[in-house]
Design a protein that fits this description.
heterodimer; A: 157 residues; mainly alpha; 0% strand; B: 658 residues; mainly beta; ten-stranded mixed sheet; six-stranded mixed sheet; 8 helices; 44% strand; Sec-dependent nitrous-oxide reductase (chain B); N2O_reductase_N (chain B)
């Protein structure tokens, strides 16, 4: 009986998932609202939301990575952020690696929209800045390099 | 004289009778209960088809959804478009260059989608400029005009841009025969018969879409109207309707309606290719522009070409054949099997259907009734499959549903008529509102029509919508053709005066690798500023180049000083956004130009020549954030020779100064 019930539930889940998916590829098949449709109660404010679960920072600063990060940030970030604690369009970067986990930073920089919708601190920040951080289409490597640049900015040697 | 008067009178009576019987009692007649449901696409849901509709005298291409009739976008092609800065920005100006210089407007008549194996493939849409003859290719990854080629020896590029089943060629037939560009055109107009020639251009399409005029065929002077390529068994052939075979040069509405039959010209383009290879063409001195868009530099370039290869149809006897066709043929359509060629005489009271197999046999048997300017004229009966009797008045265009049915628009009697291609029996007819021209069934001129919807494009709209003064929108009407009977489900307004349109399944287009934004790292624009640290102002003589960036919600720099009267200022604005759907705009006071609309990751340039001393604001025209209104800046213009150093800044306030 129990088994039948589980099977039925399993099938239901299967079908309901199958309906949402199409094989047409890429973001074009998603309705605009699906990005924010997952359950907010499962949101982890320490890690944020996105593909990064653990980020290995190593022992000290990777200077080469930080320098790459500086380049990318120059193109994609510095029109809105200062390296000090002063707010420009977005908040200053000073101390960000002490306030946030590495996972949170990498998830937010690559997946900002869903996090802005769920993260209580980001929502409070939005009330101050009034500009949602744009998705700047960073690659995973870009995000990692920028994180290293932020660490350098925070005095990591 | 008497008999002509009688003819005209009876025609008028007949037309009046038809009009009277078709005119609905009110504008909502003939719409049944479930029509709205069939056209309804709920908010957030997608349409089944993209519909690419020519903008006629607007010169642009509009993109609608089917079956909702929702307008998604207007793509600028042949006319300047202030909304997108098309023809105003320095990068786009070369796209509208011609041998006559910059031409800011044209008349986009027909649209044609690229095909592979006779099926629409979703890569490109081609469009023709009727007035200053050109063909454009619109890239469906970017929904942007990627290329425009001008056509020499032509006037009124009407019978284009029709396409062969693997997009080998796009053709363009001249509507007005004219003296060739390589001859002295300064001749008396009444020497039409001697000095005027028709030229049909075969434009080769490369793998990436790049266009090049492979050859032209010179024909006797007639007016070419429309055309279609053969397909399947008739692949290798092209068919062009011609009128004014009387070769009149004045009052054509009478003088080009003298003969009972004009022609459909059948062209064996494979044979023409052989003659080109065999060196039978003549190279002629002409001038035409070829304009191409570079996706990496976000910039167009224009090149003037000076030579074209011309084949003479009167010398090369087996490339062109004339099929007699009643009367003043307009539409010339080939069914999905490639066997049937349908001519539609604007003034004919029947629709002749020709057979490709019979055409081949007639040519083999030399079943000629004479020649026309050196081109063999086939016997009508020898090529005819049959005639559709009493289809309606003023047959214009025919499309197909892939189930053996043809749908023909009737301009004079304002209706669409469905008929069986083999038996030639009329199966159904529905009224249109009013004076229908072209029609479109998604894939309806390909080997594989998606015979679910039919859209009729009407010339007259009076009483369909709320009036807007003497000028009204044109209207399109969607019919559900999935059943035996056609059912009107929606009408929607269109821009300009739409001529042809094409449609394809939505997934074919939106999943073809659509561009969402330009990657900053791939931006090869010579004046790009990749990041605010590259924002700067550089003086070169009297030219001032502003390398400006935009990011929600500010420009960098936003204060510029040290510009003098007599300077030319070039605002090169790079949009630093890398997010979908966040263009930025740019406009500066007093510009005798347009605005810029810059896509994420793109660089675009506005040339501004200040006409007075003063301080001029600039701002972003496209709303992006709550602080949009704050996205602004100032440029100061000083008298020539003033002692104001060139200076630019962002976020820096100086002590009050001069």
């Amino acid at each position: 009986m129990n088994k039948m019930y589980l099977l039925a539930v399993g099938l239901l889940l299967f079908f309901s998932c199958g309906k949402e998916k199409t094989n047409a590829g890429e973001d074009f098949t998603k309705a605009s609202s699906t990005e924010t449709s997952s359950d907010p109660s499962s949101y982890d404010p320490k890690r944020g939301e996105g593909k990064f679960t653990t980020v290995d920072l190593g022992t000290g600063l990777d200077v080469a990575m930080a320098s790459e990060g500086e380049k990318v940030a120059g193109v994609k970030c510095m029109s809105c952020h200062k390296l000090t604690d002063e707010r420009l369009v977005g908040p200053g970067w000073k101390g960000v690696t002490e306030r946030r986990t590495p996972e949170w930073i990498m998830n937010f920089s690559t997946n900002p929209d869903p996090m802005i919708d769920k993260d209580p601190e980001l929502q409070a920040q939005l009330e101050l800045c009034l500009v949602r951080m744009p998705n700047q289409a960073l690659t995973d490597d870009d995000a990692r390099h920028i994180l290293e640049y932020m660490r350098q900015n925070d005095g990591v040697k | 004289m008497k008999s002509r008067l009688l003819k005209i009178t009876s025609a008028v009576v007949l037309i009046a009778a038809f009009m009277g019987s078709c005119k609905p009692k009110n504008t909502s007649d003939t719409v049944s209960g479930d029509a709205a449901q069939k056209a309804y696409v709920a908010p957030g849901k997608y349409d089944e088809f993209y519909n690419f509709v020519s903008g006629g005298f607007s010169g642009q291409l509009s993109v609608y959804g089917l079956p909702s009739g929702r307008l998604f976008r207007v793509i600028p092609v042949f006319s300047v478009d202030p909304e997108k800065g098309w023809g105003y920005s320095e990068e786009t100006k070369p796209m509208l260059n011609t041998s006559h210089g910059f031409v800011p407007w044209d008349d986009l008549h027909h649209t044609e989608m690229s095909q592979t194996n006779g099926e629409v493939d979703g890569r490109w849409v081609f469009g023709n400029a009727n007035n200053t003859p050109r063909i454009a290719r619109i890239d469906l990854k970017t929904f942007k005009t990627a290329e425009i080629i001008e056509l020499p020896n032509s006037g009124g590029n009407h019978s284009s841009p029709f396409i062969t089943e693997n997009t080998e060629y796009v053709v363009a037939g001249t509507r007005f025969s004219v003296p060739g560009d390589y001859e002295n055109g300064d001749v008396p107009i009444n020497t039409y018969k001697e000095n005027y020639k028709g030229h049909i251009s075969f434009v080769k399409v490369g793998k990436e879409g790049e266009m090049d005029i492979a050859f032209q065929i010179m024909t006797p002077g007639v007016n070419f109207d429309l055309s279609h390529a053969g397909k399947g068994k008739s692949h290798g052939w092209f068919f062009f309707s011609c009128y004014n075979t009387e070769q009149a040069n004045t009052l054509l509405e009478v003088n080009a309606s003298q003969k009972d039959k004009d022609f459909i010209m059948a062209v064996n383009w494979k044979k023409a290719e052989e003659y080109v290879k065999a060196g039978k063409g003549k190279k002629q001195k002409v001038r035409y522009a070829h304009n191409t868009w570079d996706e990496h530099t976000h910039t167009a370039k224009s090149e003037i070409k000076t030579e074209v290869l011309v084949l003479d149809a009167s010398e090369l006897k087996d490339i062109c054949y004339m099929i007699p066709c009643p009367k003043s043929p307009h539409g010339c359509d080939v069914d999905p099997t490639g066997e049937y060629i349908i001519g539609s005489g604007k003034l004919a009271a029947l629709i002749p259907v020709f057979s490709y197999d019979k055409l081949q046999k007639a040519i083999k048997d030399k079943a000629y009734e004479g020649d026309y300017g050196g081109i063999p004229v086939l016997k009508y009966e020898a090529v005819l499959h049959g005639e559709v009797q009493k289809p309606g008045l003023g047959p214009l265009h025919t499309e197909f549903d892939g189930k053996g049915n043809a749908y023909t628009t009737m301009f004079v009697s304002s209706e669409v008529v469905k008929w069986d291609i083999k038996s030639l029996k009329v199966l159904d007819r529905v009224p249109t509102y009013y004076s229908v021209g072209h029609l479109c069934i998604p894939g309806g001129d390909s080997k594989k029509p998606f015979g679910k919807y039919l859209v009729a494009y009407n010339k007259i709209t009076k009483d369909r919508y709320l009036p807007t003064g003497p000028e009204l929108c044109q209207s399109a009407q969607i019919y559900d053709i999935s059943g035996d009977k056609m059912q009107l489900i929606l009408d929607f307004p269109t821009i300009g005066e739409p001529h042809y349109a094409q449609a394809a399944p939505a997934d074919l287009i939106r999943n073809n690798g659509q561009l969402k934004f330009y990657k900053l790292e791939d931006n090869k624009h010579p004046y790009a500023a990749k990041g605010e640290k590259e924002a700067k102002v550089v003086r070169e003589g009297n030219k001032v180049h502003v390398y400006m960036t935009s990011m929600r919600s500010h420009f960098a720099p936003d204060n510029i000083e040290g510009v003098f009267l007599g300077d030319e200022v070039y605002f090169h604005v790079t949009n630093l956004e890398q997010d979908w759907d966040v263009p930025h705009g740019f406009a500066v006071k007093g510009a005798d130009n347009g605005e810029l609309l810059i896509m994420p990751g793109e660089t675009t340039t506005l040339k501004w020549v200040p006409d007075r001393v003063g301080t001029f604001p600039f701002y972003c025209t496209d709303f992006c954030s709550a602080l949009h209104q704050e996205m602004q800046g100032y440029i100061r213009v000083s008298p020539k020779g003033a002692n104001v150093p060139l200076h630019y800044s962002l976020g820096t306030n100086f002590p009050a100064g001069k």
